[in-house]
Amino acid sequence: MTETTVKTPATPKKHSLFADFFKRLVKEKPLGTLGALILIVMLIAAVGANFIAPYDPVESALKDRLAPPSIQHLMGTDNLGRDQFTRIIYGARISLYIGLGASLLNVVVATLLGLISGYVGGLLDLFVQRFVDLALSIPSLIILITLVGIIGSGWWQITLVMGINGGILWTRVVRSAVISIKSNVYLESARAIGGTLWQIIFRHIFPNIMPIMVIIFSVSIAGNIMAEAGLSFLGLGVPPPTPSWGGMLSAEGRRWMYEAWWLAIFPGLVLTIVVYGVNMWGDAVRDILDPRLRGGIGRYGAAVKRQQLGEKTS
Amino acid sequence: MKKIFWLVTTALIVVAMMLSACKTDDTAQQTTTAVTGTVKPTGTTTTTAPPTTTTTTTAAPTKDPGLPQYGGTITFVLAHQKATDYFDPVVSAIGGHIGNVTYDKLISADWGKGPQGTGENPFLASHHPEDWRTGMLAETWEKISNSEVIFHIRKGVNFQTKAPANGREMKAADVVYSFQRGQKDPRWTGYGFREWTDTAAIQTWRNTQKANGRTDAELDAWEAELKAVKYPFHAASYMVATDSYTVKYRLFTPYPGIIDVASWLFVFPSESTSVDLGDWRNACGTGAWIVQDAVSASSVTWRANPNYWMSDPNHPENKLPYADTLRGLIIIEESTQLASLRTHKIDVLGVSWDKVGGLLKTNPYLKTKVQSPTGAIVIFMRTDKQPFSDVKVRQALSMGIDRETIINDYFLGNAIIDAWPCLPSNPSGYTAYADMPESAKKLFQYRPTEAKALLAEAGYPNGLNFEVIIYQSPVDQDQLQLVTEQWKTIGVNATIRVVEGATHSALIYGGTYPDMAYSYWGNGSPQSCWGWAHGGVTNSIYNFSKVVDPVSEENFLKWQNMTDTAAANALLKADYLRQTELVWEIPLATPAGSKVWQPYLKGFSGESNMGLTSEMGNNEMYKFLWVDQTLKATYK
Q1: What is the mean pLDDT of residues A142-160?
Q2: Torsion of CA A298, A299, A304, A310, to 10 degrees
Q3: A156 touches chain B (CB under 8 A)
Q4: Torsion angle, CA of B433/B439/B444/B449, rounded to 10 degrees?
Q5: Do A80 and B478 touch (CB under 8 A)?
Q6: Which of A248, B165, B289, B439 could form a disulfide with B159 if both were Cys (CB 3.0 to 4.6 A apart)?
Q7: Domain B100-284: top CATH class
């Protein structure tokens, strides 16, 4: 009789959720890692702007206006003689405040509306979803321009408007997830043993839609940064003299494009890199966290890869 | 493989397009003509902040050598998305002044006195004082009083050969018809036309007038006068024909600028009763151009009127117009306008001061001419409440602005200091900075120490905090940023709030802005600075600073009835100076734009427009211009 030994795949080491996430981000998503690095650089620039920036971002120096890039002014100066590098660093702060703030609000609004609408259902769901239909039928920029026109421009106004508007648009995603979870047997059991509405929502549904919330957050950041830049470009963003990338592109870049190329190129370049990075990071987060994304790139795919790797090594 | 092929092909196409876009127009450069220098607005005191006050006067604009040529096309920009909706001469002024091309006015600026003629009038502003005007459809006119003028209509002027007039002679009845149609049209600001049967409306008018100090006798006399000439009731004015070539124009309230008001009128045939004049096919005036085609939001094309009555005042043997075709391209976006000029798609363009350098960098052969501002940049304040009700605060804020630095280092000299309350183009009310008394002069000077002391005297030793609203204009926001930065030196912390244009208008018209409003304001005519801005009429919707100034009101009423022009102007100047010292508004540096045109557009020296009191004369001058077609061919 031949003795056969059954080799079991090596049990992967247990990591914390965050460690697991970052390990997989670095190993499986190089572009996502790059995106995360860009985001980190942006965070550092925004938080430490006061220490990093070589000049005052709002103080004019008309004698130095429209100076090209040099050792003194790495990215040149604008039409009021302000150092463009400094303003870009400070601009990161606005982009970050609004990008993160509005994305957070997106999540809150989408979760609240989606959770209630999806779980309660009936007339309330009908009403909420028709409202969402209405919001979806109007281009976001039009809504943003109108609302900012009414309540005025400023970083918190923009954050509020973009957060609520984007949140309404994301409601559908959360609602779908809630409806799918609602039909699970364990929820029926929870109801059968006398679980209250809030207990069911917070103990059973909420944890299950957590990954979706994280994805909404990460995917929204780039869109919100762009939307802020768009509003600033249209003159409805953060009022001067506070620097913002969109405002720099519009107020200075577009006006002085022929005389001072650096005024359009650098803010545009930084905006492009950051939005690209944040998008890559958002995609990576989605790929790693979304259980629906299988077929080689999600958690399931990675697990399959690991198993195959284990088989090969055995 | 397929993907790589398409990727390479696309990349090559993009590179080819970029290279062709960057190609320098060698041919054009070979035929470069001298670029007109960056001169300051004519007759204006520029960079006038002390102590180094300098007065710069424009050198006489050059006259185009050579004889005019007939033929060719002149292309210009119509900067109004819905320009084609405004063919109706009654509302034409709203839609990019499209009417000036097809219809003539009673009076206009005298082209013969411009740079291409005697050179008396630099033609850099929209206001042309009386000496520089000439009769168009009104050959001559008599100003009987500030409330009555007689126009003698030019004989032998025919309408264009098309329906409804079919080339018949224009007469006084047409002028009156045009005027009355405007009065009855609700779009024409509703000056108060009513049927006599509408007694309630007439009574309301009487009550309002009596509240403003008019007597029953005056009101009865006006009603009797209207009835005597068989006119419907009108609260402000009437116009009647006294014979086939004479028109009488009357105002209820005397107005020294009565001629300006009546001169705006576009004349069209009296057969137009049942015609939709808003349809370009029905446009029939006495003007130099006949509408040939109009495409909504795209373009308008006119062809030359072969029977136009007017000759070139500088070449009397030449009938006008010179060009065969006139094209107005509807382009709203500034970058597109500039690109069109760069690529010779348009022949002439009005551009802001900050765009000229960029244009000359890419197209050094373009001709440019700095214009005189048609309005002023000011800061309106809520003078009806603290702290701005205190003159010391207002004066301190004015002295806390370093206008000299702003003009020299930001506007690069392309701005003037003394555009408010009266523009330099209005000699009747304008006092140059250099001629102001010291008490007024110092308010334009940067005196931070005095400003701080004044604030302390007014009870604000620790400075002030307030908000300034502004619209979405980068240039204006730049200036306001500089101003607020300078105010910090005197302890004033002003927060800028950008609002949408319509919101800005609503806030200043409603007088509901919180503290201050930065604004451009068109003070194009002498009287407009008074009646529109503030003071003169406390209840005026244009009293943005919410000023209550009884002295100014009294002077305004006195001025309205003065027939001695010299005395009226003296009063105007004196009151403007008084107002300047009271700082009801804070005047800022006002930039001057430029006209930029192609070198093949001849007979042109960068003239602003041919209006009298406003931009109503835009587009009117194209009939005098001609195209050097040989030269133009080299720029293709």
Answers
A1: 82
A2: 130
A3: no
A4: 150
A5: yes
A6: B165
A7: alpha beta
Does the beta-carbon distance from B485 to A65 stay under 8 Å?
A: no
**Looking at CA atoms only, how far is residue A245 from chain B in angstroms?**
14
CB B317 within 8 A of CB B284: no
A234 to B472: CB separation less than 8 angstroms, yes or no = yes
| Residue boundaries of the structural domains of chain B | 100-284, 376-591
- Which chain A residue's Cα is nearest to B470? A239
Is A258's CB within 8 Å of B354's CB? no
pLDDT of residue A10: 59
DSSP B514-527: SSEEEEEE---SHH
Distance of CA B266 to the CA centre of its chain: 17
pLDDT above 70: residue A294: no
C-beta separation of A291 from A100 below 8 A: no
pLDDT of residue B190: 52
**Which residue from A60, A239, A255 is facing B496, i.e. has the nearest CB?**
A239
- Kindly report the CATH class assigned to B376-591: alpha beta
What does chain B come to in residues? Answer: 636
- Give the one of B361, B480, B498 whose C-beta lies nearest to A153's C-beta: B498
**Chain A nearest C-alpha distance from B364 (Å):** 13
Q: Nearest-CA neighbor of B357 among A13, A255, A213, A203?
A: A255
How far, CA to CA in Å, does A9 sit from each of A20, A123, A310? 19, 52, 6
Nearest Cα to B530, choosing from B513, B542, B520, B518? B542
**Average pLDDT score, chain B:** 84
DSSP designation for B369: E
Asked if the model's pLDDT at residue A6 lies above 80, the reply is no
What would the pLDDT profile of B22-59 be if each residue is shown by its tens digit? 444 433 333 222 222 222 333 333 333 333 333 333 34
Could you tell me if residue B50 is left (phi over 0), alpha (psi between -120 and 50 degrees) or otherwise beta? beta
Q: What's the pTM?
A: 0.77
Mean pLDDT of A212-241: 84
User: Quick one: A27-55+76-313 is in which CATH superfamily?
Assistant: MetI-like (1.10.3720.10)
> What residues does each domain of chain A span?
27-55+76-313
Contact A255 B354 (CB under 8 A): yes
Size of interface A-B (CB pairs under 8 A): 75
Buried-state track B107-122, b at ≥16 Cβ within 10 A, e below 16:
bbbbbbbbbbbeeebb
Q: Which residue ranges in chain B fall short of pLDDT 50?
A: 21-61, 95, 535
Residue A79 touches partner B, C-beta closer than 8 Å: yes
d(CA B464, CA B455): 9
